[in-house]
Structures are given as C-alpha cells and as structure tokens.
Amino acid sequence: MTSDSFFHPVSGFDLPRFAGVPTFMRLPHVPPGHDRFADVDIGLVGVPWDSGTTNRPGPRHAPRQLRDASTMIRAQHPTSGLRPFEAVNCADLGDVGPNPADIPDSMARITAFHDGLRTAGITPLTAGGDHLTSLPVLRALAADGPLGMVHFDSHTDLFKSYFGGTMYTHGTPFRRAIEEGLLDPARVIQIGLRGTMYDTEDRDFARATGIRLVTIEEFFDRGIPDVMAEAREIAGRGPTYVSYDIDFVDPTFAPGTGTPEVGGPSGFQALQVVRELAGLDIAGADMVEVSPPFDASGGTAFLGVSIMFELLCVMAAGR
User: Could you tell me if 290 and 65 are in contact, meaning their C-beta atoms sit under 8 angstroms apart?
Assistant: First the structure.
C-alpha cells in the first residue's frame, strides 16, 4: 500500500521545524468534515482532558505540547527502515473538545468522535489526557465486540472506585471497561506494575477475572523479548488495543507526569516494548498522562511522541 502525497509530513528541509503551525508529526490537519477525511488510514487525535485526575492535574495540556515536540519526528524508522507516512495515509484529525466541568459529557464527546473514526475505517492513535481517556475511546472501538489489550503502566487502573463511590477517575477506566464488556480479560496483559499501594483490591480483581499482571520485577528478570512474546500470545490474533501510560517509564527519563513511580524502564526500553508489538491486529492505541506542568525540559513530551511514532510504525505495518 502506498500513501497519497497529500498525507506526507512537511520536511525539515523544506520548512524549519520551528516554523509553521504545529500538527502531530507535521502531518496535514484533516478534521471530520474535511474533503480528504475518508481517505485517512491512521488518524492522530488529541484529547486535552484530565478531569479524571485525582492528585496532580496537567495532562489536559499534553496534546498541544506533544504536537510541538513532534516537529522533531522525521519520516523513517531508524532500525526497520519503515517510512510510515509513505505506507499509509496519516493525518492530524484535531482535538476532541471536552467539557472540563462534566465528566460524562466529555466521555460522550470522546466516544462520539472515535465512533466516527471507526465508522470511517480510520485507526486512531490518541494523545491524552489522563488515563480515563481510554474508557470512552474503548466504548467506540469495541462496538463490535470486546478487544484484547496490551497496557504499559506503573498502575493497573482497575480500582472499583475512589472516595467512597466515585466511579470515573484515571484509576478506574479498565475496571469499567471489563464490567462493560469492552475488554476480554483473558486477552489483557498489564506490564510494568510497581510502586507503593493502597491495598490489593485492584490486583485481586485482575487475578479473579484472568487479567495477566507483569510486575516490574518480573519484567526485568525475564527481559523484554520474553515478556513481549507472552503479550503477543495473550492478545492473540483478534483486535487489540494498546494503552501506553508515560509513567510506565522511569521518572529519570519521563518526569513530566502526575503519578510517577521510580524503578522503571529507560527511554530506550520504552521504545523497545512497542517494537515487540509487531504482528498484532491493533484496533487503536493511546499515549496518556504526559503532564506539561511537570515537564520543565520538554523531554517527557519528546519521549511521548517518540513512542507514538513507534506505535504508528507498528500500526502502519499492520495495515
């Protein structure tokens, strides 16, 4: 498959990277209603929303910073040689406009936007936003049946509720997704879990439903190729969602996040795990929890978009 030249990014040889209006990876802006919208294969979407955050807010500002950092992304993968923008039609589809005062309304907007992408046959690569963003995206993408999921994170995000009954926070999205039948727990693996804990309620739920948990100790003991081979086996051949919380990465390399946990992977290992997703049927993916207020150098955002490029390459190869 060869892409339409309309969908090629602006080269740094043609326009300096510090010039022009920033879009994801300097791709054309093709929002719904654009006359080329139906021609998009993979759409990059911003969700500037963090109303599910329970401590340190800031991910609502991430899509704007990620777009700016992504002007540093070039056209070719350094090891595979893949040129994703020439393989498939990619575009920046713009932002989902949230309602910062209303969580249910915001989730309905996010679901409606992504349902439009599913109907159009566009595979979304979504930039949050906090991790609650994943739930309304899954509500759209799992309309035809539950998905598998490979989830990179320090936390399970499987808690029942917060503060005595608040059901929708960035710590609960995948509990709701299992309850709503959006994910098949037997095809879900969560990788990188670590940090101090309130209790074991979330992990008890995972084990009771068949979700595979990989702690950071197991991750390092076994090594990336072995863990990711298991991840591919668990996800299987069916449609699979990939959710990537930037706090999977050690805060030495990614300090700009609201809930950092020490003892995690390096920046290079953060890329390696995505490369090991090759061969999966990826129905959609997200990068969440980048928080510009805690990212003084901008390095977290650049790592975030570098991971997004890796995801884009795996998705493009799958198309």
Answer: yes
In a domain, 5, yes or no: no
Contact by Cβ (8 Å): 46, 96: yes
Residue 12 lies in a domain: no
Q: What would the two tokens of residue 251 be? A: 């805060």
The total domain count for the chain is: 1
Rounded to whole angstroms, how far apart are CA atoms 310 and 317?
11
β partners of residue 123: 42
Give the helix, strand, coil percentages of the chain, each rounded to 5: 40, 20, 45
pLDDT in tens, 98-113: 999 999 999 999 999 9
Question: pLDDT tier at 171 (50, 70, 90 boundaries)?
Answer: very high
**Residue 6 located in a structural domain:** no
Q: At what angle do helices 267-275 and 299-318 cross, to 10 degrees?
A: 10
Summarize pLDDT for 175-232 with one digit per residue, the tens.
999 999 999 999 999 999 999 999 999 999 999 999 999 999 999 999 999 999 999 9
Which residue has tokens 């948990």?
A: 213
279 preceded by cis ω (within 30°)?
no
